[in-house]
Structures are given as C-alpha cells and as structure tokens.
Amino acid sequence: MRTPDELSEAEFRSLYRRLRATAPGGGTPRGALDTITGEQVLAAVREVRSGRTVSLAAPVNTRPGPDDADPAEHRLTAPADAEPAATGLDFARDRFAMNIHGDVNSHLDALCHVLYDGTLHGGAPAAGVLSPAGASALSVDLARDGIVGRGVLLDVPRLHGVPWLEPGTGVTAEDLAAAEARQEVRVGRGDIVLVRVGHRRRREELGPWDVADARAGLHPTAMEFLAEREAAVLGSDGNNDTAPSPVEGVAFPVHVLAVHAMGLHLLDYLRFEDLAPICAREGRWTFLCVIAPLRLPAATGSPVNPLAIL
Is the overall model pTM greater than 0.85, yes or no? Predict the structure, then answer.
C-alpha cells in the first residue's frame, strides 16, 4: 500500500465543505440515521440465514496500559470483602465506570461529540448545547431506539494479504472499492459500514502501544466513498482516524468529516476477529447489525456491544 497524500488545512476545509453540502446526513437533526428506512430494516432482517449471533465489541479493558491510562473500573461492592453470608439471602453487586471515548473500549460517538470551529453537527453553536450537565441536543439519545440495519464488513488487511495494517497506514477510497470488488459486495444507502484495519488483532498478538502516536485508520478522502454510497454509520476496529494525522492542524480529520460534516455516528475500537473468519468462510460479508447504546440522554457517546446476526 502506498502512503496516502497529506492534506493542507485549506484542502481539508474544501473537502469538509463539499461533504457537508452533499452528504445525506449533513445537517439533519438525526444525521445519516435518517437514511435507514423501515423497508431497509426489513431487508436487513432477510440477511439472517442461520440465526447465529456474533459480538462486535471487545472485552472491556480494566488494566492500565500505553493506550489506556484511564481504564474502565469494575469492582464488587457486595458482599462485603467478597465474603458471602453463611445462611439466608444475600446478593452479589458491583459497580462499573468508564471513560467512554478512550482508545481501547468499544463505543459509539454521538453527533455532539465533535466540535469544529466552535460548532456541532448542523452548525449549532457548541456553547448553546454543551454544559456540565451534558448535551441538550445531538446526544446519544438520538439512537435510544437502537440502530438496526444491514451491516457490511470491508476487510482491508485481507485485501492486501496481511493480518493487519501497520500503524500509520491510511485506508483510501480506492482500498474500500477494491475490498468491495474482492468480496463481491456493494455498500449502499443506509448501510452500517464496518472497516477492518486489524488494529485489535495486532493489539492482541503484539500487545498494546501508544495509539496517539501511531494507528491505522481511514484517510480523510475515503469519506467521499461513504458519502457517495450514503452510508448511515461508520465503524472500525481502530478509532477510524489515522495517526499521525495526514491533515495539517487537525488531529482527527475523519471524526470531523464523519460526525460534524456528514452526521455519521461513529463506532470506535470494535472487534472483528470472530466475525471476519466466518464471513470469509461463508463468502458473505453482509448481515443484520444491531447496535443498542445505553439510555444516557445527555451523553456524548455510549459503550456498545454491537451484534452481527447471520
């Protein structure tokens, strides 16, 4: 794979304006979720053949590491000292806390997550929406009824005959189109597009690393492919953005283009290592996908355990 070209800030802003003007979710209150119709959900249900379900989430990480200085916390709160009563009724209880937008755990980014030039998706002034109490609009509550549709997995490392893309590699629109052709599938309006870069497999086999310095992801120009196909949601087993950023002065250009310009909810740090072999073995890369975020009305995102149903 060749290294995609870097973009100047002016080139990036031009791309941003073009996508905001043409993407189907570029300004509506629910963003690209509006591309998923009831008819498309029914069609996605017909993708189910065996009834097999596969989790697309990684196990929640509770250990600090170079990519997770603030891991999730989980502890038993009862029985006291983990000593159950010898007689009578007792309950085991626990407590869980997570930094939703970390670099390890699987999560959904809401449309209020990305601020650019002081605004949120659709041009709303961020100061008028965000407060210490949370977000008064564009929160993860937009997806409170779940996101259900046709999932499409594009396996880019498989396309190039490698187990994963090395950190710093950017996936281009040409890569996505080539993966489509190799897998004999085509992304369409309202699809939940999942791009495998192999981040999770590399982490599991080689151990964690500082992903702020180097990670594989999508090149910003790849977003034109998703806009043209009118995708509803974008997810990856990385955080969708490449590091180091190929855009001068913008650390997370794909987040800006997807969430802010196009109204795409993003799924970061998923896990496809159970799903991808099944898809390859069965020669089918589409499935019913169900995403159910927590009911957190003012939150900028949510932990998720998306399911592929085959």
Answer: yes
Q: Which of these, 61, 131, 133, lies nearest to 97 by C-alpha position?
A: 61
Closest CA to 30 of 256, 188, 190, 270: 190
Predicted confidence (pLDDT) per residue in 166-213, tens digit: 999 999 999 999 999 999 999 999 999 999 999 999 999 999 999 999
- CA dist 120 and 177 (Å) reads 30
Burial profile 24-45: b = 16 or more Cβ within 10 angstroms, e = fewer = bbbeeebbbbebbeeebeeebe
Taking the domains of the chain in order of start, what are their residue ranges? 9-60+103-309
Q: Residue 294's Cα: distance from chain center in Å?
A: 15
Which fold is adopted by the domain 9-60+103-309? Glucose Oxidase; domain 1 (3.50.30)
Q: 238-257: per-residue pLDDT in tens?
A: 999 999 999 999 999 999 99
Q: Which backbone phi and psi does 174 adopt, to 5 degrees? A: -65, -40
> What is the Cα–Cα distance from 21 to 57, expressed in whole angstroms?
33
